[in-house]
Hints:
Elements lengths: L10 E5 L12 H13 L4 E4 L11 H14 L4 E4 L5 H14 L3 E4 L8 H15 L5 E5 L1 H4 L5 H10 L3 E6 L5 H10 L9 E4 L6 H7 L3 E2 L6 H12 L3 H18 L5 H11 L17 H19 L1
Parallel strand pairs: 1-2, 1-8, 2-3, 3-4, 4-5, 5-6, 6-7, 7-8
Helix pairs in contact: 2-3, 3-4, 6-7, 8-9, 9-10, 10-12
Amino acid sequence: MAQPIHRDTRGVFIIAATPFDQTGAIDWNSLDRLVDLYAQTGVTGLTILGMMGEADKLTADERRAVIDRVLARTDLPVVVGISDPGLGNLADLGRHAMDKGAAGLMVTPDRGPARDDRVEGYIHAVAAALGPDAPLVFQDFPLATGVPVSARLIRQLSEALPQMVMLKHEDWPGLTKISALRAQERDGAVARLSILCGNGGLYLPQELARGADGAMTGFAYPEALVQTVDLHHAGQPDAAEDLFDLYLPLLRHEQQPGWGLALRKQILMRRGAIACAATRAPGPRLTPTDIAELDRLIARLEQRLQR
């Protein structure tokens, strides 16, 4: 069983897609191959049932089955997204994941008025429902949730809840938030918080320079994220950014709102990890022109890597 995540966790936790066949059923063989591909690229861990994993389109039984399948397939630490409109459903799924060997659980603030007291009360309720032994990742993604959260409140929650050990930073723009959180830790008066960044990795070199520990996102070339983080942590920020820049056109293309998941799945299919690039309905479908654009970007990336 993998070790739980903690306040010094660093590296790349790749956000895993959920493969479907053309009928919309989960493709379990493709899920196995996808987990294997992720492991081969050198990632630190996996995050499943996130937004990229289309968790909101899965039934409760399907979510549990995905947890069971992935945790049986890999020895890497696995963080499980458990966000749900119902606190009871969230707690049941979280307990199931931890019982099966998850390394941590990821939650977002529930949608509603962006008031600090409401967000604070909700996260305290989540922590109480899950218990102190479940390490928590706070996903700060206001572009998706509609709930902005200040650095002050994130720190307040992390200090009040010892099990909240990691921030998935996806605020945009949000580089100053990373700086603010790290500045609070300089005198040692507050506990360190692990910070892994999302948004497709679009700003990863700058986030690492601000003090982030790595990435938690779903770019279809995880090795690019791994190598960028490794080079930065080895004290070679220029080399890290030079490598990252090779992938930037494709990474940027993946960040199109509403289309990014379809593009990522198309790439993963081309890489042999999944048999079908379908998203579960309702979801985007690529046109022949979309695929031709993607093919050109991939070909250009391969040429740059060869050079």
